[in-house]
Amino acid sequence: DTAVSQTPKYLVTQMGNDKSIKCEQNLGHDTMYWYKQDSKKFLKIMFSYNNKELIINETVPNRFSPKSPDKAHLNLHINSLELGDSAVYFCASGSTYEQYFGPGTRLTVT
Amino acid sequence: AQSVTQLGSHVSVSEGALVLLRCNYSSSVPPYLFWYVQYPNQGLQLLLKYTSAATLVKGINGFEAEFKKSETSFHLTKPSAHMSDAAEYFCAVSRPGTYKYIFGTGTRLKVLA
Q1: Residue B38 contacts by C-beta under 8 Å, 6 or more apart in sequence?
Q2: How many CA atoms does the CB half-sphere of B18 hold within 13 Å?
Q3: Residues B34, A98: C-beta atoms closer than 8 Å
Q4: Cα–Cα distance measured from residue A104 to residue A36, given in angstroms and rounded to the nearest whole number
Q5: Is A103 on the interface with B (CB under 8 A)?
Q6: Which residues, numbered 17 to 76 in chain B, qualify as contacts with chain A under a Cβ-Cβ cut-off of 8 Å?
């Protein structure tokens, strides 16, 4: 019974393309997140939504746009992909005292 | 501003030996503190959390951590390492009542047979 799921698990694309990653949680949480983990395993928060409202928006290029159609879903759309966007992207859901992570989406830009 | 520092990006222990992974935090208010584990090609899994209750926190897989305000530390320990403990471990801090979590740079634990 998956708690936080992401699709796709792997994404290989060329520079300049536009791609989306989808995330769904069935834990009933009000808050969802997107994190980026680089090749050195450094984990950085990108965005957070609470009840479909954007509450955290870190220094992220405008090419990244999150969308939350409802509390259980948070998608990430990336325009004009660049080589530096290659990373693992994690979705998470939770509250002020805990988070649960999805399995990650490994994005490779060639 | 809040931050966490994990001392030692790589730690090796023998199977059956004590595991000690270090985490120090900086926070202007009493923080919430967390340890997560990441196995290869997987997401992060919550091991344990401190949310201002008991200072000694027990988690899954035999891990525990102690919140020490005077030392601004939240070190993770396990009495006896198992091969299956080999993974990346992350310490994280958040400000109570907020949704932003700050993660440390991680410590890779290697368990030697």
Answers
A1: A41, B44, B45, B87, B88, B89, B90, B106
A2: 7
A3: yes
A4: 9
A5: yes
A6: 32, 34, 36, 38, 41-46, 49, 51
Cβ–Cβ of B51/A44 closer than 8 Å? no
User: Could you report the per-residue pLDDT of B38-66, keeping only the tens digit for each?
Assistant: 999 899 999 999 998 789 999 999 999 99
CB-based contact B61:B11 (threshold 8 Å): no
Q: How far is CA A47 from CA A32, A50, A58, B99, in A?
A: 8, 10, 6, 11
Min Cα separation A78/chain B (Å): 21
Give the torsion sign (CA, B45, A21, A53, A59). positive
Residue with tokens 């965005």: A47
B107, two tokens:
């410590």
Placement of tokens 């396990």 in the chain: B78
Q: Does A30 touch chain B (CB under 8 A)?
A: no
Structure tokens at B7: 């001392």
The answer to whether the CB atoms of B51 and A31 lie below 8 A apart is: no
In a structure prediction context, what are the per-residue pLDDT tens digits for chain A, which is 110 residues long? 679 999 999 999 999 999 999 999 999 999 999 999 999 899 999 999 998 889 988 888 999 999 999 999 999 999 999 999 999 999 999 988 889 999 999 999 99
Residues of A in contact with B102 (CB under 8 A): 45
Cα of A15 to nearest chain B Cα, Å: 24
User: Judging by beta carbons within 10 Å of its beta carbon (0-12, 13-18, 19+), is residue A42 exposed, middle or buried?
Assistant: middle
